[in-house]
Amino acid sequence: MQFKQAAQTEIEKNVHNAMTKLAADKTINIKLADLHVTKVKTIAVPNHKTACVIYVPCNEIATFKQDEHLVAALEKQIVGHQVHIVADRKIEHRTPKGYRAFCKTSVDVHANLLEDLVAPAYIAGKRIQYSAGQKLNKFLVAKVRKAEVENRVAVCSKVYEALTGIKNQIDFM
Asked: Which terms are listed as keywords in the entry (predicted)?
């Protein structure tokens, strides 16, 4: 496992050590030595575990999602943190005459970020509720993987709000 930057923070060192231990283990089915991590961010969530968001390159996110036990194994190694692996996507701002790909818009980046946060499950629907001048996004997660994701939903909602600034609520459909 390789980091894109040379200087590492304490949590990045913990993630690096956990990934090298898992790479030596034969329980994980993917080769972690060839993969990269761009950055690691911690987000404090009140009344819950601290969230550890691991950013990986967009072209490697599918490889990280191949083994569903990777996140659980990382949470065992990094004690006290709930681990989320997301792709490091950038929002391109609109230029007056330039073309902008849809994958670079804020709508697509935010939708893909939410898909990465609720990783084994998937978003089945989206509703927007307007009340008293405020906007609340309600995301509906499919009940197929409710048992696996149910205890992570509250932290996912707070992480999404911290990263995007969008007030939201995640429910099961």
From this structure: Ribonucleoprotein, Ribosomal protein
